Records
---
Amino acid sequence: MNKQIKVSQFKKIMLENGKLFFSKETERKFFFFMTIIMLVMGIFVKLI
């Protein structure tokens, strides 16, 4: 039952069999920006 997912360089977000898949690059960018947002929010909370 091993199903291989074909990853295209052009597809950043894929929906297959009701599951959402991200490319490595998209996942890295998402978590990078979320980390920066959390850092800025933490600094903002400390200043108040």
---
Amino acid sequence: MAYMTLSDDYINDLFRGTNFGEKINNSVQEKRKLIAKTLQNQIDGYWSGHTAYNIVVNGGFLHDAKRGKRKVLTRLGLAFMQVQST
């Protein structure tokens, strides 16, 4: 599975101060998978949890929207997901 080239430091910085368990905490690849899953859940209309949602919004992948409103990916989010799906 390929992912858009974002530095590992950038991804790790997004997760600084969070705790998703040892598997995700210790793997930048697992963090990338969580970002992709969170983005997919958001555009499919599912909630992802406060921390995961804030990671994708603050990371520039997703435009923030009120609860119940359609969530829209940013250009970065679209590019990330496009590369992720190839």
---
Amino acid sequence: MEIVDMIWGYVAPIWSWLLEGVAAYGPHTAGGEINWMFLGLQMGVIALVMALLMQQFGAILIFTVVGTIVHVVVDIALPMVRAGAGFEMPPVTDMAYLQYVAFAAVAYLIGITVLFILKSIVLPR
């Protein structure tokens, strides 16, 4: 367990840095907590589509970037579709928003990789 503690010592500051962005710009429940269910569903659907479209593992970085861009577009368009809100540009100069986008990119990198491996096992060519 010492090696896990050592690895977590390196990962914990990065994880807390990424969670600051999710806490600031991620979806929230009525109580103000992070809505992990909605975020997981949104990311899961986008990652599944990206993994199904990806033909070779060498394109993982491209599909990670595309998945992150689609995620940002959905975050902007969903309030317009649901509540008729006006268009708002994302605050790309705010560090907390960049932390949120970095969290999404890391999540898509891991998610698309896992789903692509599962796709390769279940649906061989």
